[in-house]
Amino acid sequence: MATVAAHPESLAAANKHYQPYQRVLLVGSDQTPVQPDRLEPGENYMFFYPLATTPCFLLNLGRPVSTPRLLHSTSGEAYHWPGGVGRNRSVVSFSAICAHKMSHPSRSVSFINYRSEEVQFADSNMNTQRRSGVIYCCSEGSVYDPADGARVLGGPAPQPLATVVLEHDAETDSLYAVGTAGGTMFKPYFEKFWHRLELEFGTENIQRPVEHTTRVTKVSAFSRQRVLC
Question: What is the pLDDT of residue 138?
Answer without folding.
Answer: 95
